[in-house]
Write a structure and sequence with these properties.
Length: about 650
């Protein structure tokens, strides 16, 4: 890693010559305060996540300005010096927070959650956290039970930018293609962001290719800053004020329902660019002492606040925003300690900075230690979950335990907590169609002349093991028509993963209902869906009635599998730390069983099949019955359970004359 010498110098942007921009320090404060307000659920901060977009624009502006200034002054850039500076600036503080978070997770969280966070620690240390969360299809704006390191996605994006940007500028400047290269990169990234925002929310939000345009706009601002500086002060002041107002508007008007990044990200990003170019008017406000102090703390405060909030809620349950604000304040104290004890001593050490390899060695150490901690905790958590295998009970034993007034509450479980999350059953993944799809593939199983149709969302798909068993015993064929996050009742909903109206759901639903009526009349239609897509019970009932009317046109009897309990927490994670007391993971029946508009309604074309007297027999709904782990996440039943319940479901269907 060395230098590249140019044949001719590059013009230096005057903005990059300034020794220090105090207003940028204040802008960092604005950015971090919006993020802190959003994560603390402070009123009117529903769009506070845009603070990260402001940070990206600042990084593109400053880094590009510094690199071009070095090129203009010396005709070269030392990549070793550049990466050493970045390593000293970012990695030590990030590594400290990773180490403390890993230790706190080991002390406070159950083993399965420890295992997950161990992987997050390793990915965050390796600056690929964003890709880990993308692989898990993590929805940043709607994450339930989130990782305490979820916010490291943005740090990973920045590091990936630093890794590629300096070589790109070197090559582009060498061939005198600098501005076109930045423009092309920025335009391509923005186009990709628009496309993926509409089709894959996590990929659009968390990936570096869809965020590069924000750094690119910052880079272009650095290049044209000297021209903007020639404008009258009042013009630049107006520009800066407009930029601050744009950031404020995005913070107040946006929410987790906003399709983001997409075109919405232009508002805070261009607002930040306007402030960066202004260097007048609001610059005096941004240079205010308290704001500058927050700006200096911004990096460490950003790192600390999210683990503090997530671990506190994991320990004590949901917290109100005033408590969260107090916790954010505590994180600020940790940030101050990190700034003065870690960041500044390492960043400004002449002993370390005199040789690039020393800075790189510090960075490598800050990566290696968290990786080692992640491996250690991950191994320990797996060991903690090892136990003697449980025996699968018979259906009679299971039902007897479910009806017992005081069922046994300890011991190993099936499936084990570590494997429960993948206990999906034999249904091929493509049969639970993805959000972007508008039609189900041919998911028909068996060779019987008569067919049973299973239709609905993922809560219908969870019953396939039981339905398949019943059909096999009785010689029926099973047709599966299910779609992720798509209510079977005719509702218009927003898909969090897509960040917009779930248009594909309505198209799929109509296609599925028409397909059921086509061809031979089904022997039976089994329909089910979550009833929590809306809290408007009259609207939900009307939507169900519309769907049931269409199902009725097939002429087949319809059985409604009543919606199963919703624990509202990651049950396998809880049970992994409660193998000596299963009752620690039970939840109230009142909150677990949501209002059901079809319950108790008499319709000649509808029969209600209810197994909730087994799953939730009393005022508390158990997480484990007779050693069977009931839930694979915070809402779906395990394949082990639905397979075991097949005789019970068959008995209920037969009792209603449906088989």
């Amino acid at each position: 890693m060395g230098t590249l010498t140019l044949a001719a110098p590059v013009a230096t942007p005057p903005a990059a010559k300034e020794p220090f921009r105090t207003d940028i320090e204040g802008l960092r404060a604005i950015a971090v305060l919006t993020v802190l307000g959003f994560h603390a659920a402070v009123p009117y901060f529903g769009g506070g996540y845009v603070g990260v977009d402001v940070f990206f624009a600042i990084s593109g502006f400053l880094i590009t300005g510094l690199l071009l200034a070095e090129l203009a002054k010396t005709g070269r850039i030392s990549l070793a010096d550049f990466y050493a500076r970045r390593a000293r600036r970012i990695l030590p503080a990030a590594g400290v927070v990773l180490l403390v978070t890993a230790a706190a997770s080991w002390l406070l969280l159950p083993p399965l959650r420890q295992r997950d966070i161990a992987g997050d620690v390793i990915a965050a240390a390796g600056q690929v956290a964003n890709w880990r969360f993308i692989a898990a299809q993590t929805d940043y704006l709607h994450a339930g039970d989130p990782s305490p390191l979820l916010h490291y996605w943005s740090l990973a994006v920045e590091e990936q930018f630093y890794l590629l940007w300096a070589p790109l500028l070197l090559v582009a400047a060498r061939f005198r293609f600098l501005v076109p290269a930045i423009v092309i990169t920025t335009a391509a990234s923005f186009a990709l962001s628009l496309q993926w925002t509409d089709t894959n929310g996590p990929l659009a939000y968390l990936s570096s290719p869809t965020r590069a345009w924000q750094f690119g706009l910052g880079a272009l601002a650095a290049i044209v800053a000297h021209r903007v500086a020639r404008l009258p002060v009042w013009t630049r002041g107006t520009l800066g004020l407009a930029g601050l107002l744009a950031i404020a508007a995005a913070t107040v008007l946006f929410s987790n329902k906003t399709a983001f990044p997409g075109t919405a990200a232009l508002l805070p990003t261009l607002g930040a660019i306007a402030v960066l170019l202004s260097n007048a008017g609001p610059a005096r406000l941004l240079a205010w002492g308290p704001l500058r102090l927050i700006g200096r703390l911004s990096f460490s405060w950003y790192l600390w606040h999210w683990p503090v909030l997530v671990l506190a809620e994991a320990r004590y349950g949901a917290l109100g925003w005033p408590v969260k604000v107090a916790l954010v304040g505590l994180a600020g104290l940790l940030a101050a300690a990190t700034l003065w004890l870690v960041e500044r001593p390492i960043r400004f050490s002449t002993t370390i900075s005199v040789l690039p390899r020393r800075g790189l060695a510090i960075g490598a150490t800050a990566v290696a230690l968290p990786v080692a901690a992640g491996l250690l905790i991950g191994t320990a958590s797996v060991q903690a979950m090892r136990d003697s295998p449980a025996r699968l009970p018979t259906i009679s034993e299971f039902l007897a335990a479910a009806s017992s007034a005081n069922p046994p509450g300890e011991g190993p479980v099936l499936p084990g907590p570590a494997s429960a999350r993948t206990d999906y059953g034999p249904l091929p993944g493509e049969c639970l169609v993805a959000p972007a799809a508008t039609a189900s593939p041919a998911c028909t199983f068996g060779t019987g002349k008569e067919r049973i149709v299973l239709v609905g969302d993922s809560h219908a798909a969870q019953w396939y093991p039981a339905v398949s068993q019943i059909a096999s015993r009785r010689g029926y064929t099973v047709e599966v028509l299910t779609k992720q996050g798509c209510p079977l009742p005719a509702l218009t909903v927003t898909n969090p993963q897509l960040g917009r109206e779930y248009k594909e759901c309505g198209v799929w639903r109509q296609h599925a209902l028409e397909r059921i009526s086509a061809g031979q009349k089904p022997k039976l239609i089994l329909a089910t869906s979550l009833n929590s897509y809306t809290a408007d019970q009259p609207a939900l009932l009307a939507a169900w009635q519309a769907t049931l009317t269409q199902l009725g046109r097939s002429g087949a009897p319809v059985a409604y599998l009543k919606a199963t309990p919703l624990p509202g927490k990651d049950v396998p994670s809880c049970v992994s730390g409660a193998l000596k007391d299963w009752k620690a993971c039970q939840f109230p029946r009142q909150t677990g069983l949501r209002a059901d508009p079809l319950a108790g309604r008499q319709r000649p074309d509808l029969q209600v099949v209810d197994v909730n007297d087994v799953l939730c027999p009393g005022s508390q709904c158990p997480a484990v019955i007779a050693g069977v782990l009931l839930y694979r996440d915070d809402t779906h039943l395990t394949n082990t359970l639905t397979t075991l319940l097949a005789p019970r479901v068959e008995q209920l269907l037969a009792a209603k004359g449906l088989l």
